[in-house]
Design brief:
mainly alpha; about 300 residues; single chain
């Protein structure tokens, strides 16, 4: 019944929203551990429905949109409860919300490895990862059992995801969705650097750890990724056709050029540090791909002007 029927999903969304509202009645707050536990059991059950539909009807946009609604409603319910009852009344909810969001993030990469054309999954992954980071970076947020400061925890989390996703390239380097997932994660990394994921006043990252993480990010994503990727293609050249290798190089180069643009536009130049090495690599990429029509036109035209302004 659900499959691809917008009206069915809209009705389910309305019913689920009313169901969650019942947990905070009659006083407008959720103040017991039992209530929080039952609330998240309902939320997890709804996620299981979304997973089942997506498994039976691949690339189901509506199931992923509904899952995003459920995750956002979980965060909004906790956030509203903090406003109405204070942080103390939501301690149990903080742990359960963190575990739920973390589990959702951890499900994305295995899903993408098995459903390599599912754009909706990649975008949902970025949405729920953004929620987890926003939650952890709040003054009243929670970051699990780590002893790291919140911003360092966030940078470390995305760094681990980026490192893990490199293994996907060994098998699925020709699939655009894997590269899109990496772009979305890279954007969130730079938002932490810029302080844009914190609620309230923007607080930019300035610790030595953050500077080192930002500089490593630039080196890994702009320089090393492309160079290592091309070496792997050469070593395994007998396994791929020329068209496959051309497609893989297109995705790799487009990613490096795009992420360099995002780094240049980042407002934290003191944290990002010297970009001369990355800029030189970008110029080489532009020269190498100048006559290749597979590179997106606006990237090829816009980046030379951008790099001259550094």
């Amino acid at each position: 019944m659900l499959k691809n029927r917008p009206s069915s999903w809209a009705y389910r969304k309305w019913i689920f929203g009313r169901l969650i509202d019942q947990f905070s009645k009659p006083h407008g707050v959720i103040d017991t551990e039992h209530q929080w536990t039952e609330l998240f059991e309902r939320i997890k059950e709804e996620v299981r429905v979304c997973i089942s539909v997506a498994e039976h009807f691949p690339k189901n946009y509506y199931s992923w949109t509904h899952r995003n609604f459920v995750s956002r409603l979980a965060y909004q319910t906790w956030s509203t409860n903090v406003l109405n009852a204070g942080t103390g009344a939501s301690n149990s909810g903080s742990h359960l919300l963190f575990n739920f969001l973390e589990d959702e993030v951890n499900r994305i990469e295995p899903w993408l490895m098995n459903h390599v054309s599912d754009h909706s999954a990649a975008h949902y992954g970025a949405e729920v990862l953004g929620l987890l980071l926003t939650f952890g970076l709040r003054d009243d947020g929670y970051t699990g059992d780590t002893s790291l400061p919140a911003q360092e925890w966030g940078l470390s989390l995305i760094g681990n995801i980026l490192a893990s996703s490199r293994t996907a390239f060994e098998h699925f380097q020709f699939h655009e969705v894997i590269w899109i997932w990496r772009r979305l994660c890279g954007c969130l990394f730079l938002k932490i650097i810029d302080g844009k994921l914190r609620q309230g006043a923007v607080t930019k990252v300035s610790s030595s750890y953050s500077r080192a993480a930002a500089q490593e990010f630039t080196k890994n994503e702009v320089i090393d990724l492309t160079e290592n990727f091309n070496k792997q293609l050469e070593l395994s050249k007998s396994c791929f056709t020329e068209d496959e290798k051309r497609l893989a190089r297109k995705h790799s180069a487009a990613y490096s050029l795009w992420i360099f643009r995002q780094i240049v536009l980042c407002q934290c130049k003191d944290v990002i540090g010297d970009l001369s090495e990355a800029q030189g690599h970008v110029h080489k990429l532009i020269s190498a791909m100048h006559d290749d029509e597979t590179i997106v036109h606006n990237i090829r035209v816009y980046l030379p002007a951008l790099t001259k302004s550094l």
